[in-house]
Amino acid sequence: MNISSLMAKVFAGIALILLTYGFIIPSVSFNGTLERIKDNKVENIPSYVYPIWNFYQKGKYIGINTQKEARGNLKKMIEISEEIGVPSLPIWNFSLEAPNYPKEAFPYGLPVYIHFDGLSGEVHEMNTINHYVGMASMERGGVYESFLAPYALIFLAMLFMLFIIYDNKWVNRFMVIPVLLPFIFLGIYSYWLYWFGHNLHAGAITIKPFTPVILGDGKVAQFTTHAYPVVGFWVLLAISIFSLIAWWLKSKSLKKQPSKKATPLQHYIFIITLLVGIGVSAHVLKTDIEVDTLGKISTLINSSKVKPLTITETSNSTKEQKEAILKERENQRIEQETKIKSLENRAGSVGKFKVSTMYKSNCAPCHGASGEGNIGPKLVELNKDELTKKTLNLKASEDEMHIAVFEYLSDTDMKELVEEIATFKDQ
Ligand code: HEC
Question: What are the CA-CA distances from residue 386 to residues 315, 333, 358, 404, 421 (Å)?
């Protein structure tokens, strides 16, 4: 073996270690854990998951509401039903800044981290916002990709092993996959961003289809968005560079010294590696079957299908079809009610305060159940004249946040609403 070939193996080895440490260990071990928590089957979580999650959580984003003793402690996090993210290295960060997330309380804005195998950060809060603008919940993005991630990562590790074990031109070409890895990620990520911005359903407000920014700062409605690569992406880039160097060194050495026939020892090592790879994949598969990952994915996809708000009935539709339509409507109504309920709860003033249904369903989602402000600013302190002037201005300027609600309201409706809101401060 010459020096270039040896160096090639060292570089491939470093790339393999980075891949294993940053992605394979956390994603393989954590696979199925979130599903088990959701299904109330915490007892089925293998004990090794806890120290691994706790270890990988060090130095990561922690929800601002998370209790001190629960930070970096998966057991505690589950006990207090905290939002739990996947432990693999986060690759991309997407965050929002908005008036209702003040810098003092939200120094990182409202961040969500994208991983190969899932998400972490303020996913729940972000989903609530996505819901307002009619965007699907974040988990919907890359469902199959994150399901396949552990398998793909194991496969990639096998390719590295193949490269390290054999000196062969043909095996060399596989290096193109790890070299392209960061770009494959970016491609899939961009596709999903496009998908999210172009599969909008009727939310509390309607926005025009758009593609969220992939890198840098942008604006969606009144939110400032930031999107940047984080640690996982730099590790991917390092893996890519090391793989490229390894590939180049190996090609150079093969040119000088064409490959010899592989020895039985090489085959022997490869068979062991293969068995380990198959074993680990089988373990992931067993977990996926047990927690019914595919079933959960199809439920998620069905629940986030873009639903037309009115379903046209034709005269020749059968009884079952009619029943299905009625059921669908009822579901939509319940969904709408639950949405409003949860928003009221968030605003924390159910019962005490009486507001009209018109206010509740049109303005409360953003201005709070009693006008105290939520995503939109406080309205309580404005008097009737200010309210009239401001609403008229918003209407005239076709303000993005209001165009959808104002469209459905007549001038009399608007007048009544303004009169109602003006009484809020006395209640
Ligand atoms: C989707 C969220 C959303 C909905 C729904 C909404 N607003 Fe707003 N509203 C905002 C935001 C955000 C602002 C801040 C200005 C902006 O960025 O458009 C605002 C500002 C206002 C203001 C000006 C407040 C000020 O102090 O300058 C008024 C008045 C107002 N909204 C009235 C209403 C009324 C009345 C309704 C219901 C018919 C309504 N809004 C529904 C989000 C919303």
Answer: 50, 34, 20, 21, 11
Atom of ligand 1 nearest to the CA of 390: 29
Q: State the closest ligand 1 atom to the C-alpha of 391, by its place in the atom list counted from 1.
A: 29
Alpha-carbon span 400 to 209, nearest angstrom = 12
Q: Which residues, other chains included, contact 319 with Cβ-Cβ below 8 Å and sequence gap of 6+? A: none
- Give the contacts of 288 (CB within 8 A, at least 6 positions apart): 31, 32, 147, 294
Residue nearest to atom 40 of ligand 1 (CA): 363
- The residue whose CA has the least distance to atom 39 of ligand 1 is 363
- How confident is the model over 97-145, as pLDDT tens digits? 876 666 766 777 889 999 999 999 888 888 877 777 778 888 888 888 9
Centre of ligand 1 from the C-alpha of residue 346, in Å: 18
Nearest atom of ligand 1 to the alpha carbon of 99 = 12
In angstroms, the CA 99 to CA 222 distance is 9
CA–centroid distance, 129 to ligand 1, in Å, is: 15
CA distance 100 to 132: 14
Q: What is the pLDDT of residues 193-229, one digit of tens each?
A: 888 888 877 665 666 777 778 888 887 766 788 899 9
Contact 73, 90 (CB under 8 A): no
Integer Cα distance of 113 and 230 in angstroms: 9
d(C-alpha 232, C-alpha 214), whole Å: 16
- Which two structure tokens, joined as six digits, stand for 12? 């491939």
Provide residues with CB under 6 Å of ligand 1: 132, 204-205, 222, 362-363, 365-367, 375-377, 379, 382, 387, 390-391, 394, 399, 401-402, 405, 417
Closest among 207, 50, 237, 227 to 121, alpha carbons compared: 227
Q: Mean of the pLDDT values across residues 256-282?
A: 90
Give the type of residue at 127: N
CA distance 9 to 163: 8
